[in-house]
């Protein structure tokens, strides 16, 4: 479960599109006005939940997010709409505008996501060396 936190227009959906592209999803990941969760199929199933319009945090239970996350990747925009209801194990990515670009801060909760960050660090050291 990936949680994308950032102000309006900070780039959460664009980052979700990048994840979709990386997983060979053919259509762009988008938020829709009426559905809170959209599903895409690439190398893995990608589910994109935009909680911006969530009226109350408890509504998140109706979405069954933990269940649908199991076979693929679940991305949640606006997790702060339902902090306490979201699974405690996740990767939180905070996005802040920085000039023309963005600064991302990654925070892992739970061993699975800690390992993911370690892999990313190893990978970026390898790229830096190459
Ligand atoms: N990494 C980036 N570098 C530069 N510009 C970006 C980046 N990511 C997004 N943008 C710009 O910010 C705009 C808004 O991005 P996006 O729709 O992804 O924001 P959002 O956080 O999903 O907004 P909302 O809170 O409304 O859902 C994009 O149209 C794009 O022009
Ligand atoms: Mg968005």
Give your account of this protein's structure.
The chain has 130 residues and is an alpha/beta fold. The protein has a single domain (2-129), classed as Rossmann fold (3-Layer(aba) Sandwich), CATH 3.40.50. Helix content is 30%, strand content 30%. The chain contains 4 helices and 6 strands, in the order E-H-E-E-H-H-E-E-E-H. It is globular, with a radius of gyration of 15 Å. The mean pLDDT is 94. Adenosine-5'-triphosphate binds at residues 6, 8-14, 77, 100-102.
* Ligands present: adenosine-5'-triphosphate, magnesium ion
Round the mean pLDDT to the nearest integer and report it.
Answer: 94
How many beta-strand runs? 6
Distance between the termini: 31 Å
How many domain regions? 1
- Largest sheet descriptor: 6 strands, mixed
The CATH superfamily bears the name: P-loop containing nucleotide triphosphate hydrolases
What is the CATH C-level name? Alpha Beta
In percent terms, what proportion of residues is strand?
Answer: 25-35%
CATH topology: Rossmann fold
Order of helices and strands: EHEEHHEEEH
Q: Which residue ranges are poorly predicted, with pLDDT under 50 across at least 5 consecutive positions?
A: none
CATH architecture: 3-Layer(aba) Sandwich
* CA radius of gyration: 15 Å
